[in-house]
Amino acid sequence: MQQPQADELTLYGERFNSRFLLGTALYNSPELMRASIETSRCEIVTLGLRRQNPGNRDGAAIWQYIQDSGCRLLPNTAGCKSVKEVVTLAEMSREMFDTPWIKLEVIGDDYNLQPDPFALVEAAEILIKNGFKVLPYCTDDLILCQRLLDVGCEVLMPWGSPIGTGQGLLNRYNLRTLRERIKHVPLIIDAGLGAPSQAAEAMEMGFDGILLNSAVAKAQNPPLMASAFADAIVAGRNAYLAGLMQKRQTASPSTPTVGQPFWHQ
Amino acid sequence: MHTDSQHYTVGIAGAGLLGRLLAWQLLRTGHKVTLYEAGTLSSPACAAWTAAGMIAPMSEAVVSDRNVYEMGLYALNVWPQWLQALGQPDLYQARGSLVIAHPQDNAELHQFAQDLRYVVPDTEHYRPVNGQEIHELEPDLGVAFQQGLLLENEAHLDNRALLDHLAAEIHRLGGQCIEQCPVRVSPGTVRSAHGDEQFDWVLDCRGLGARDRHPELRGVRGETLVVHTDEVRLQRPVRLMHPRYQLYVVPKPQQHFVIGATQIESEDRSAMSLQSALELGSALYTIAPAFAEARILEQGVNLRPAFMDNQPHITRTEGLISANGLFRHGYLLAPAVVTQVLAEMALGAPSPFAHLFTSTSGGISR
């Protein structure tokens, strides 16, 4: 039997075994967060700095604790609403964590936290020119995604649905289109997933990875939910690699029926 | 040094809530207590002064765990007895608390109820309430609230008056209070600028000030507003569930209200941010529009001392007991922690919480 081949995720030239990226906010305690990172088997964690007065290193205790997990840190710009805010925060986080990687978020709407596509492209262009490796959190709009590629993004992170809603993949048509049209750039579904089955579905569709936070952090047992998502992501990925069968209208028995006249089949 | 086997000399470092409660309990039973405070007793820098003073085992269980709930139930029994003993029973109000959400955010309310059932499946002390019941319970709340939960056995107390009465009682019982005196502690010894003092027991209740002995302690920033208005009356704490922030308003004497609290993983002690002021202010306004004309008396900023598991830790070596990390649950957990510390000194009744403090997380280490 053929085993699944070595199947790594490559982001900005770095290779990862795990296709699960986990957020570090909203847990009931840092210890639960660390336990969840472990059971998720993830290799990249995101962290937000916006309200922690990063210039004074006021969040240093918790940052160190996250860093001790051994995962690659992906600082984010959550909570920023303008290009200027984003650029300032990205520069600070690059200095602080000694990484050019940045998860780019520019919020355009307060209620559903929808990304501002115009500011996103502008900020991505500036950051890439300044040497950042930008992982933009974007909507599932094809043209927006193409513009982000045009300015130099080497990975895209379209939403499944708005942050924290747990609604899953709201617009399958758009997501399928993205996957079909953008074949050679990693696409990571970021935000909106509430259940492992939704993550498995995204992976079956051929997406390269999953980034989430609330669904794990707000579960009643976060470490257990983290491992459930990890399993679902592996299952969905393996299913994609194995090749899903097509859906059909007529039933097709897995055991051939012998002796049945063919005109009845 | 100690006089006989039953009466100890005790040096207590830190006159926050734990330090005061322990001093008071020990003085009541005839021990000789010296209480050291880095600041002053009248306007302390401790988190207990900034806090809202809720005794809310169910609400807090949702954001922590079963241990906090168990210790919180104990607090509901102990606080009325302690306040009676202090001659201040009126500082304690047991009228439950009300959890509400705007209609568009009802999912948050359902999530809260689901989380509550998960942590404490055996409790019967809460019930859903509809718009009319909400109005009957709290007539001054906004009319839009159609669904809520009444947590019937929760309570709140007037925390600042309590801290003042404890200080007065400590003086009255002959406790020695040394203010503006930062100290370091070691078994049997309190060291300050005045030199070393020897005691049978040293109790380290310095909160974040104890980081020299507990480098793993961290501060979690919390911000509160204190406002005054005569236009709104509330009988009980009200919690607003919202997708982004969860805030409470707690009624205090003289028509004061404490609104809190942000929870930011930061050790920044600088003044409240505009964003936090907007969040707290707008949540308050949506709870009851009449708060619009309230006067802002105070912006509180403080750091909650916490360990990485957000659970209280008690550590004991001969001659030194440290109690710390009460995080956002000071008034809720203090009775259990005080009882455990006294049990560690082989005083008072056996603690019902020895099992909680002997787990690997949140444990006593010896």
Task: Describe the protein's architecture and organization.
The complex is a heterodimer of chains A (265) and B (366). Chain A is α/β, with parallel strands linked by helices and 265 residues long. Chain A has helices spanning 30-40, 60-67, 83-97, 117-129, 142-150, 172-181, 196-204, 214-217, 222-242, and strands at residues 9-11, 14-16, 20-23, 44-48, 72-76, 101-104, 133-138, 157-158, 188-190, 209-212. In chain A, strands 5-4-3-10-9 form a 5-stranded parallel β-sheet. In chain A, helix 4 links the parallel strand 6 and strand 7. In chain A, helix 7 (196-204) runs parallel beside helix 9. Chain B is of the alpha+beta class. Helices cover 30% and strands 27% of the residues of chain B. Chain B is built from 10 helices and 20 strands. In chain B, the strands form 4 sheets. An 8-stranded mixed β-sheet of chain B has the order 6-7-5-15-16-17-14-18. In chain B, helix 1 links the parallel strand 1 (9-13) and strand 2 (32-36). In chain B, helix 1 (17-28) runs parallel beside helix 7 (159-172) and helix 1 (17-28) crosses helix 9 (330-344). The two termini of chain B are 24 Å apart. In chain B, 51% of the residues are buried. Chains A and B meet through helix 1 and helix 2 of A and helix 5 and strand 14 of B.
Largest sheet, strands/sense/barrel of chain A: 5 strands, parallel
Q: Which regions of chain B are unreliable across 5 or more consecutive residues at pLDDT < 50? A: 359-366
Tell me the number of strands of chain B: 20
**How far do the termini of chain A sit from each other?**
32 Å
Indicate the structural class of chain B.
Answer: alpha+beta
- Greatest interface and its participating residue counts: A-B, 19 and 25 residues
H/I helix tally of chain A? 9
Characterize the overall form of chain A: globular
Neighbour order of strands in the largest sheet of chain A: 5-4-3-10-9
| Number of H- or I-type helical stretches of chain B | 10
Q: What's the Cα radius of gyration of chain B?
A: 20 Å
End-to-end C-alpha gap of chain B: 24 Å
- Average of per-residue pLDDT values of chain A: 91
- What structural class do you assign from the helix and strand content of chain A? alpha/beta
Strand order of the largest sheet of chain B: 6-7-5-15-16-17-14-18
- Beta content of chain A comes to 5-15%
Share in β-strands of chain B: 25-35%
